[in-house]
Amino acid sequence: MKFYNLLIRYRFWLSILAIVLAIAVNIYAGFWPSFILYFIAVIGLFSHFFIGPMRLIQEPMEQGDVEATQKILDMIWFPNLLYKPIRSTYYTVKGNLAMMSQDFDNAEKFLKKSSDLGAPMPEAEGANKLQLGMMSLQKGDLKNGEAYIRAAIRSGIADKESEAVAYLSMCQIFMNKREFRAAKDFFRKAKACKPKTKQVLDQIKEIEKYISRIPG
């Protein structure tokens, strides 16, 4: 696995080296002896630009190593050449890194690009749309916030904590719209997710204080 990761990391330069060697062999021994080197170089360059080094992202992301993750992303010079599902993942990671550095404008831009491309998995698409919805709500844009969060719920959200956040957000949107019956329905769905994180539980307790008193 380590050897394969090293191969991916240095694939571009190894392909360039293969081309140089192929030209030298071609000059001194003819085309056919150099054919295998040309073939290796073409495959290496094609996979570098079409697939990229995204396979290397998983380990540094799991370790929370933002700098290493960014260095791997910087190896992708022409993201528009990436295979569509890989390009979607690339923009998702870029969006998440931008959010971590609180660069919300770029985060929104990258996540929209990923969403427009269509995520490789419906759960990833749901997570993208939920993030876009939460950013819209932070800006006070309730209309787009609701649209994105509805789309996230339709796409499917992988974990119960995030699903609870989506339903609580919809609950608050409908309370602002004074559509209390719908707000209560979303609140029940949020509780049914049985979230465990303190932040989500605190939000549920806060809403629960007054939601039983409102009509609908």
Radius of gyration: 24 Å
Tally of separate helices: 12
Measured distance between first and last alpha carbons: 58 Å
Uncertain ranges: none
Apparent shape: elongated
Alpha-beta content class: mainly alpha
Report the β-strand fraction as a percent range: under 5%
Helix percentage: over 70%
Q: State the total count of DSSP E strands.
A: 0
Description:
The chain is mainly α. 77% of the residues lie in helices and 0% in strands. It has a domain at 1-50. It has 12 helices and no strands. The longest helix has 20 residues, at 31-50. The protein is elongated, with a radius of gyration of 24 Å. The mean pLDDT is 87.
Key features of this structure:
216 residues; mainly alpha; 77% helix; elongated
Layout of helices and strands:
Layout: H1 2-9, H2 11-29, H3 31-50, H4 58-62, H5 66-74, H6 84-100, H7 104-117, H8 122-138, H9 142-155, H10 160-176, H11 180-192, H12 198-211
